[in-house]
Design goal:
Dna Topoisomerase Vi A Subunit, Chain: A, domain 2, four-stranded parallel β-sheet, Helicase, Ruva Protein, domain 3, alpha/beta, 206 residues, globular, two-stranded antiparallel ribbon, 2 domains, homodimer
Chain lengths: 206, 206
């Protein structure tokens, strides 16, 4: 017997349960929530995700998600095109934009090299990054990937590909997070932060 | 500045974040997931929830969610119509159906009386339950609501409304869950299970 008593509900539960982090119980809870609300709420939800998927574009320069051919950041005349920050996805762009500390442009890889998940260099926007560097006019590439094995692998792969161009390659500083206590910091981070110590004066101006 | 870099993404995130238990970070994760998958996956998700909301019906007898005028359980000739189990929503029906222990029919209230949430008796399918009882041919009403204050209030409200009809009103047994250890059981449950003790022989035949 069909334990959902409705094929329509079962179908909606099955579709929602395909999303990451949503199991069948949560999916049913969402369906019951939608059934209690006005029909218009469900229609606008459905339309928003379908329209988003159907009409989304990727910026032809940085490959960020965009509503137009060139994204707002790349189109902004006030940002320097000579500094490119390399990130994994749009969430990293948002996090860095929120700091207000970066005035250059981005390059969105769309992921990081992860053989376990079957993601190789050619599944990512690495060739397009090399092309941007090869065209010249780039002074610095800032690598801002996760501090994981996959992130380090991707950093190194990109480093090897662009090190012969006349461009500075840097990586965002790793160390003790501001507000963290030393005794609770893992030894790798603590060790690196001692090796990569910086002049005290340089911290005063910040 | 629009921190999502895309109005389409922002819109989809806003709609998803309206769902219970889904915040803006989770919503963005779901959006990025959908963007990585084939477009057809998003279309079938969108269609499934819109079709579900638009075409869903409620069984005219028990008010369960149904694809037809009368749900599968009410339409089943092998189930006795003389015993009605009163539950809050379809999840309880599914849980009870999974036990395989109930051969009667249901009545789905669509919630429980909860003044805090602004849910009164007239927001629920209580009048329709009284009507079913008043029509006769019902032998027993089994109350199967949550053991919360709201559940107890709803039980008592319904009890007062139907006690004068010639019908047995029972409630599902409360006690120590099978497999539970006594020392970890809360005192209210333990106290009630002593007050409501049952003949030992009656447990042998199960």
């Amino acid at each position: 017997m069909n334990s959902y008593s409705s094929k329509l509900v079962e179908n909606a539960v099955n579709e929602l349960a395909r999303l990451p982090g949503i199991g069948r119980k949560t999916a049913l809870r969402l369906v019951l929530h939608l059934l209690k609300k006005e029909e218009i709420a469900t229609i606008s939800l459905g339309n928003a995700i379908m329209k988003m998927r159907g009409e989304i574009m990727f910026c032809s320069e940085c490959f960020n998600i965009s509503d137009s051919e060139v994204c707002e950041i790349c189109a902004n005349q006030n940002r320097t095109k000579e500094t490119i920050c390399v990130v994994e996805d749009i969430r990293d762009v948002m996090a860095i934009e929120n700091t207000g500390q970066f005035k250059g442009v981005y390059h969105i890889l769309g992921g990081i090299i992860s053989p376990m998940d079957g993601i190789g260099p050619h599944d990512l926007q690495i060739d397009s990054l090399i092309k941007r560097v090869a065209q010249g006019n780039i002074q610095e590439i800032i690598m801002a990937l996760s501090t994981t094995i996959e992130g380090d692998t991707t950093n190194f792969y990109i480093y090897k590909k662009i090190k012969d161009y006349n461009v500075t390659i840097s990586t965002i500083a790793r160390g003790i997070a501001i507000g963290d206590e030393l005794e609770y910091t893992d030894e790798v981070t603590l060790g690196r932060s001692i090796l990569n110590r910086m002049p005290y004066e340089s911290t005063l101006s910040k």
